[in-house]
Amino acid sequence: MSSGITFVDPLAPRAYGGAPGELAGLGGTEATLVKIAESLAARLRVTVRQAARQGDGLSGRVRYAPLDLDRPLPEAPGMIVVVNSWKVAPKLARLNPGARVIVWQHVFPGRHNRGLAPRLKAAGVEVICVSEAHAAWLRAFLGPDAPRIGYIHNPIADDLAPDETPRNPDLLLFASSPHKGLGQVFRRFEVLRAQFPTLRLAVADPGYLAWPTGPVPDGVIPLGRLDQPRLIGWMRRALCLFYPQDQFAETFGLVIAEANAVGCPALLHRGLGANDEVASDPGQCIDTTDPAAIAARIGEWRAAIGQGLLARAQPGFRMSRIAGQWAARLQPATRPDPEFLTRTDNQRKVRHD
Question: What's the pTM value of the predicted model, to 2 decimals?
């Protein structure tokens, strides 16, 4: 069996790679795939196949190639990782019987996916989610028809750390697509600003989805689309990521993990999606339907500036750790993966306790 791994992206609207600018206008799924592929390429043969790609390309050690779903993959990989598509994975399993096939699930699937779950299970296809909360939700959603489900967190860079940039007590930051509750964030910022009138809310929008948010309140600074270094720069200056919304559940929330890694806390709704798992301490997760709780936490963080870090990175999210977890899965499907099984069993216990 080959020691290589092939990532298959049948859903991205256009081809992309790791070269500067190629991820502009795309989401976190594509960016995460590129980071994982580049990290694994130091130890494995890595190919990324995309339905939207017309010709071969090379970025670093990663080969980018078109996707033909009517023939076996010519590189004969040991593992095939399919991004989000439950229809494509069983087909690839049939065409490539020597490969371990995994659906890398980044989103909460729709109801139609329940009918596809038995096909995954029958084909021996596994699912890897991006957080423990995400995996537990998916297992409950699918019930007895669930295929084998585990999780690997999305990664943050090994060297992402705080620096000497002064934190601004009057600057809040929203850094996601507007469909992730920005309208609700605006309304709650408006209420908060009545108590702290000097506050400003900077809004960084990746630009891949237009979404109605209602009136934009006073004090909002539109940043538009930022590249990663500029976004990290805003995280270093902001008092916090400001996400007081309970409408959109994150399966992971990479921007939360990255902000924490540079010392920036995130104000999040408790119990929503993976918020409690990704935030580096419980104090970042509150009841954001309570204006008094929001104001109290913002006041605490404003008073604490200069007294030490407000948040820290979770070591388990570092790229070196996550890449190692992916590499460990490159083994025959008939050979049990103890770590995967342990995590899956733990999820069962959590759901039934």
Answer: 0.89
